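Table 4 source record.
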Amino acid sequence: MRISATWQGGRAFTAVGATGFPMQMDATSNYGGKSSAPTPTEMLLSALAGCIGIDVTMILKPYLEKLTKLDIKVDGERREEMPTAFTNIHITFEVSGEVSAKKVWRAIKLGEEKYCAVSASLTAEITHSLILNGEEVEEEVKAEV
């Protein structure tokens, strides 16, 4: 896989991959940018949410018509010194609908540990939480992968 990033002036870049969709990036003013687009680190966390989200929906395919909500929030903690890499990432899944917590937890664990190429490419510790139908649900037993 290859992407091409073209400088747009200042700290802004436009990247294009094999699918042909342009992705704008810019730095915040702290780094000389204009905050005109997502930062590369925002895009990284977005890529993680999208990747595991795709995997979870594939694993939960038999239950998708019974879901009314699947929101994913990703919080990342970074080192203070350069490079300010992510050290800890927490992913919260907010799911509503008629599906068991056990099935959702299994999909989350399989998605992150077996299928998601983005999470497999990161060195940060990744943790999860699940809010199912408005209630936080603890993982009872580690899902078998």
